[in-house]
Design brief:
3 domains, Arc Repressor Mutant, subunit A, DNA binding, LysR_HTH_N, transcription regulation, transcription, D-Maltodextrin-Binding Protein, domain 2, DNA-binding transcriptional regulator, LysR family, 11 strands, 22% strand, three-stranded antiparallel beta sheet, globular, alpha/beta, single chain
């Protein structure tokens, strides 16, 4: 019997390449690292060749692994397009994944839009970190992905203001090292937070980390330190803007949709998100 390349192991292989390793791939796929490793070993057993190898302390793809990656992308794209096409055409469920930072505004807006355009469909939402939102689109479990992203030099996307926040009563005037609260990796805000402070020559230290927005905001309100957050609905209760810290690079909200979603729906979703992003452009201290 000929060998078979199963979809789930192929998805893990692609995630390892895109995320830069087994640990981050496991986080993106919501699996354990051992499960991802087993998936790659299954592919190696099926093909009869090594797909990854150790080079010092790092992992690298072999030549055979690089070849399989090209085909894996094509296989997964065809597989996921077929599933989304069947789902949408059968008027079942449209899945929307959105970043936590805009959920309060995006969920009502997109719910109304999809009920109007696809009245026979159910709408399923997942609120998560931007990296995982994108992973859902890549693995075919999401039809519409809304995520926070940096704006490029030639990008005309609407700017979402991103500013430093602290507890309303936190006094930073006497600290020798700025106490910083960060999201766990993978996170669109983590690297810009660190790089902005480094570029300004500010001494800082990490005092708290969390995998979600609720944990970060709880740490800020407790007065542990400052954090970088997008300003979409004004200044959160119990917090204040820290205006004397360096301004980070500009961000926006982006929308990506599955290829099987009707273009009219995709365009309407992009327009709705652009309206919300544009309304976040005014920051009040």
């Amino acid at each position: 019997m000929s060998a078979t390349l199963d979809i789930v192991p192929l998805r893990s292989l692609v995630a390892v390449a895109r995320c830069g390793g087994f640990h981050r791939a496991a986080q993106a796929l919501h699996l354990t690292q051992s499960a991802v490793s087993q998936h790659v070993r299954r592919l190696e057993t099926a093909t009869g060749v090594a797909l990854v190898e150790r080079r010092g302390r790092t992992m690298a793809f072999t030549r055979a692994g690089e070849v399989l990656l090209v085909h894996a992308d094509a296989i997964l794209a065809a597989h996921d397009t077929a599933l989304r096409a069947v789902s949408v055409q059968a008027s079942e469920t449209v899945s929307v994944a959105t970043t936590e930072h805009a959920a309060d505004r995006l969920i009502p807006a997109l719910t109304g839009l999809l009920r109007e355009r696809l009245p026979a469909s159910r709408v399923h939402f997942r609120v998560d970190r931007s990296a995982r939102v994108l992973a859902g689109l890549d693995d075919g479990s999401v039809d519409i992905a809304v995520f926070l992203d940096l704006i490029g030099a030639d990008d005309d996307a609407p700017v979402i203001p991103v500013r430093w926040f602290a507890a309303a009563d936190l006094d930073l005037s006497t600290v020798s090292e700025l106490p910083v609260i960060l999201f766990d990796d993978p996170c669109a805000l983590r690297t810009p937070s660190v790089e902005t402070l480094r570029a300004a020559g500010i001494d800082w230290r990490v005092v708290a980390e969390s995998q979600d927005l609720a944990g970060v905001t709880a740490a800020v309100r407790a007065g542990l330190g400052v954090t970088l957050l997008p300003v979409i609905d004004g200044v959160p209760d119990g917090m204040r803007l820290v205006l004397d810290l360096p301004e980070p690079p500009p961000f926006t909200l982006r929308v990506r949709t599955g290829s099987a979603l009707p273009e009219a729906i995709s365009e309407a979703a992009r327009s709705a998100v652009a309206d919300i992003a544009g309304q976040g452009a005014v920051v009040h201290a």
